[in-house]
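Issue: copy button drops trailing tokens. Both records pasted manually instead:
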Amino acid sequence: MMKYVLWIVIVLAAIFDSTGQEACANWTNLPNQAEITALFKSYRESLKNNDFASAFEGWLKVFESAPAGDGKRSYVFDDGIKIYTRFFGDEKDNQKKKDLVAKIMSLYDQRFICFPTKANVDGQKAFEYYFTFTGYASDDEIWSLFKKAWDKEGMNAGYFMLNPTTAILVKQIQDKKVPIEEGRKYISLIQSVLEHGLKNCKDPKDCEPWNIIKDFVPARLTELEKVAGYYDCNYYFDTYYKAFEAEPMNCEVINTAYEKLKTNKCNDIDERWIKLKAAKEKYCKKNTGTKK
């Protein structure tokens, strides 16, 4: 019974989205400021105890009166996103889940209106669609959000955007929904941000997220080898010939480099190709000896 009552409250909460100044009202000038701040402290304590039902009741009252909280921090919006995300995870009805996602995204948008210096809203929404709300936005919609985020942030993009953007963009290029040249532009930016993050992180804690994601991007980008014309011969020599140079007698490495270069028409009269071909003939001949 409580679940259904709670759902009614959630649905009713959707009508409280305000516009204009009311959307960013804070409690600093409210006549009942003491009451609202007490509710704020109380519901946040409920959140700490994972009592989301009680927290929601208090949060809603605060949100109705002062969605921008103290006017300096976005805690009320952030808490609302956290609460609705929990409800999304608990909900079984598809339509209700869809309504919850819409509410969460509206909170992201409203938070951006009130706190425009907050982390890139398009990047955050795309990230949540990709990882948390899978299937509630198309790949095209997610890429559109990530693209706007990268256009805005450039080299200042957060590490959290790299992996999902790479995955979505590779697929978009493979499906011919993003032209190769446009794809190269954003892939280059992603690689630059990753390199910069790894080189300039200051301590183990700061470097940890960069070290976690550092292998995903290059591994995913190898999938673009399947896209005709995406990579030129310089890429294949830099990637596979260098691997051969590191292990010049490893037949598996030699064969991989040989096939990659040959398949992509990089087997012209080049000193590197001649050296690779010679290594293949020397180390990778099949044993054709007679049986005893």
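Record 2 (pasted manually too):
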Amino acid sequence: MSTPSDSTAGRTAGGAPESPPAGPATGPGPAATLQSIVPGETITVVHLLRHGEVHNPEGVLYGRLPGYHLSELGRCMAERAAEWFGGREITHLVSSPLERARETAEPTAKAFGLEPVIDERVIEAANEFEGKTFGVGDGALWHPTIWWHLRNPWRPSWGEPYQQIVARMLSAAADARDAALGHEAVVVSHQLPVWMARCAFEGRRYAHDPRKRQCALASVTSVTYAGDRVQSLAYAEPSADLLGPADIQQFGA
């Protein structure tokens, strides 16, 4: 879940890509120092696309629950992402199996004549609070029945371990890179998995404040590989003008 300040962080005019800000290079990620291109290396780009806004009027932390689809605004965001990819050499498309991700992939699939590959490795993170609501000021987090799940924010104790998320996302990204070798791939996933992949690539700490993730709805985190090495990262928000209150109403996105 992000905040308005997270949605605007790192944005350039028109949602153009921008190199992400430097983060603390003390985490266990494999690419704390991004590499220079060596002449003759094959350049491939993997775009990690977060899905668009979900219709969720009850504010449920839906996680991996089925039945959560894009809102009308979310569908506009998906179309905007497909437009943003226009003119690029997108030759491979991957999606999380969840409805909101598959629906986000549809306009890009249509634009490039691709059949999305459904990959369980890019699914939303598992979460003990799935199906619950946590409204602002409702005191839900003070209920004794959930305290045990909050005991270790470094792992975290309330859901899938960060290291496990990183391992599956980096594996999926590498396979997408190989499938699109010399061209570009799009992987439609979810906020936490995309952010954890970026933390690994940049050598950031895995434990973090969820409110400070730079991964807005329908945003694109682009990973450029030189051969099989990560050469650079960039971030863009094709739906920047559609964000705002909508972006902070996404639970388990």
